[in-house]
Structures are given as structure tokens and as C-alpha cells.
Amino acid sequence: MSGGSELVIMGGGCAGLSLARQLAILEKRGHAIPETTILEPREQYLHDRTWCFWQPAQVPVDTRIAHEWERWSFSESGGNRILHEGGSWRYRCLPSDRFYREAIRWIEGSSRIRLQTAMPVLSAAMEDGKEHRIETPEGALQARMVVDTRPPSNQGKPLLLQQFIGIEMNTPGPIQDPGCVGLMENMQQDEHGFLFHYVLPYSERSCLLEVT
């Protein structure tokens, strides 16, 4: 894979693909963009995560958003529940498979951007204060600019460690309030730390349940 590129994006996750997608949009609008290479270690993109966030209700819902909710709640292990009404805000859900497909569609439509999957970065360094040299399993790549979106490594002992596991499931009975997100339900503390449940109801009989 020896060669050169004006810009190398190390990591093709949410940040890397978002940057490349925006460059592709600018190119479509007639702007000049740098020749760009994205280096992503994954061989393929899967539906492996979900991003959720608040947005003002007046912000149009684009095709990547799968669900939105007007209410959210918190509850303790004893059952005490606090319910919030969204008002002018909405809690919206973006599944990764929709995001990946839409971003890659823009990238594939660009004449200046290429996505290299199954291509981890082995090392990256500045040479002569002018260009970066990025080593990959298939050779070295020279670049004038580099954006590193990979997760940081060797940070030492974390101050706060969050662990969670989630599953999308169909429920045996109807969900009590499918219009309400359980952001931190059944909050409790034990010898392992602070525990809560995160519940995204997708319909009256399906949801994402996450133990955090």
C-alpha cells in the first residue's frame, strides 16, 4: 500500500467517517477537498452499537434516525420514579448500521476519498517536520496531514470505568410506556460499584435493554 495522500484519517469509526462524509458533501457542492485515505482495521461494518442524544424538536429528523422519544425517566431500586417531559427537546436514536451505510455511500460517491478496510495503523511519525509516514501491514503511506480518530491507548489506571452490555429483544407482553426512555432505571450500588438499567423502547413489544 505504498504511496501518498494529502490527508490520512486513522480510524474509520463514527468520528473518522463523519469527517470523510462532510468532505464528500463539500466536494459534491463544488469545493476543493484534499485527496483523502481512511485507514480502518475492521474488515466490515456491522450493526454493533447505537448512539443516542438530545436534539431540539425543531431540528428535522433525517433518514438515519430510527426512533425518538418525548419523555425520559430515572428510578431507584426501591421503585421511586422521576419522569421528565421533553418539551422542546427530543431524545433520538441513531443505529450504527444506518450511519455506516449513509456515510459509506457518500464516500463511495467521491472521486477524492477512499476507504481502506482491514488496514490497521502500525505506527505513525512525522518525517523532517514536513510529512507524516504511516506504516500499515501493506506498506508505508506518506501524508501531508493526519487526523487520528483512534481510541487512546496506554492511559494508565482509569479514574472512572464504565462497563455495559446490551441486547435488542422482543418482550412477552406490552411495554408499559413505549413513549418514555428509561435513562437510568433501578439505580443501585453494590460491592462492584454503581449499577443501573438503560431501556430504549422501540415499540410496544420491542426494546434495547442495557445493563450498565
What does this structure look like?
By secondary structure, this protein is mostly beta strands. The protein contains two helices and 15 strands. The strands form three sheets. A six-stranded mixed β-sheet has the order 8-2-1-11-10-9. Helix 1 (14-28) links the parallel strand 1 (3-10) and strand 2 (36-39). The longest helix has 15 residues, at 14-28. The two termini are 41 Å apart.
Task: Give keywords.
212 residues, 13% helix, globular
Quick synopsis:
This protein is mainly beta. It contains two helices and 15 strands. Helix 1 (14-28) runs parallel beside helix 2 (96-108).
Strand tally, please? Answer: 15
The side-by-side strand order for the widest beta sheet comes to 8-2-1-11-10-9
**Beta-strand share of residues:** over 45%
Largest sheet: 6 strands, mixed
- Taking the alpha carbons of the first and last residues, their distance comes to 41 Å
User: Ranges with pLDDT <50 over ≥5 residues?
Assistant: none
Which range best describes the helical content: under 10%, 10-25%, 25-40%, 40-55%, 55-70% or over 70%?
Answer: 10-25%
